[in-house]
Amino acid sequence: MINCNRVNKKSILEAIEDFVLHIFSWFLDINVDIFKNNVDKKYSIKLFDKKLINLCRTVSVVELVNEIIMKDKNCTQREIYYKFYNIFREQNQANKHIKDVCNILGYERSSLNIHASEKGCIAGLLILKKGYEILNLREYENGIMINEFLLNVDKIESMANYIIVVEKYSVYQKLCENKIWNILPSILITGKGFPDLSTRKIICELIQTFQLECVYVGDFDPHGIKIYLNYKEGIKSNDKNNLYACKNMKWIGMCSNDIVFFPKESLISLTKKEKNILQNLKNNKKFLSTSQLKNEIIQMDRINYKFEIEAVQYLGMDFFIKKYLIKKILRKEWLT
């Protein structure tokens, strides 16, 4: 249903040609000006280090990009990993070389028809229209997977007032089962832990399109706070502004005073590693110097406990949704 707005195919192929010529000149040890269109273009010296396997990996990805651009096809990062399983030890290694190729050619990954494997999910009050096709997310029990071009449609409609971003997929599923959007007009999203680019992108685009209030629901633990700050910080880019930073996202819970809802046996002591994470979070001056959330970090460190959202379910999801989550959102009892 969704198609990518591709950049000029010719310019990408020219960038690939320049790179190939550069590789040949290096192999043949000749000094020729092969960059007639861009004399300032330079490639990282890391390409030509002692480990020729790195060059082999990079060239393999460039070859695949050339093929999919020529044939107007698409592929995911996961597909690239499986295609070259004999030269990539793990997915992260493949992702690194894909990123290197993007830098070499000077184009974003999506412009090269390479997409992230779908991770995040979205449900609730959102209707997407393209031609005669209509996608109403309310009709899907657990929503749909998020991809980079989900909103690349003719028309987007929503009656939502809020975006609720949930840390965990298990909690997202429970909220879908209870159709929280019928109680509080909302769009429900989860990045299943740390968000990928597609999840960040759609949150930012929905906030901008509909001017929605965005709240985050996560565990009261160091990792939950790190994930929240990860949404707010966005992705580091070459310019001063980070990509897809949800700076106005609000922390709705869990909070230190929610400990009253939890049975004592559900409280978990912080590990040494988590205590170190808390210490690093305290030093995050960019987002926490004037943040109310800093007090939560201090309290977590003081009581030396963490607790997960799932533990409150002994009170019932009806209590969690109506008496806790929705009540806090409507009263704007969030942290900034």
TrEMBL record:
Q: Which cofactors are reported in the record for this sequence?
A: Mg(2+)
Q: Residue limits of the Topoisomerase 6 subunit A/Spo11 TOPRIM domain?
A: 162-329
> Which GO MF terms does the UniProt record name?
ATP binding; DNA binding; DNA topoisomerase type II (double strand cut, ATP-hydrolyzing) activity; metal ion binding
Q: Where is the active site?
A: 82 (o-(5'-phospho-dna)-tyrosine intermediate)
> What Pfam families has UniProt attached to this entry?
TOP6A-Spo11_Toprim (PF21180), TP6A_N (PF04406)
Domain (Spo11/DNA topoisomerase VI subunit A N-terminal): give its ranges. 55-114
Give its E.C. classification number: 5.6.2.2
| GO BP field | meiotic DNA double-strand break formation; meiotic DNA double-strand break processing; reciprocal meiotic recombination
Q: What class of enzyme is it?
A: isomerase
The terms describing its cellular component in GO are:
nuclear chromosome
Keyword tags: DNA-binding, Isomerase, Magnesium, Metal-binding, Topoisomerase
Q: Which family does it belong to?
A: Belongs to the TOP6A family.
Q: What is this protein called?
A: DNA topoisomerase (ATP-hydrolyzing)
Q: Which organism is it from?
A: Plasmodium reichenowi
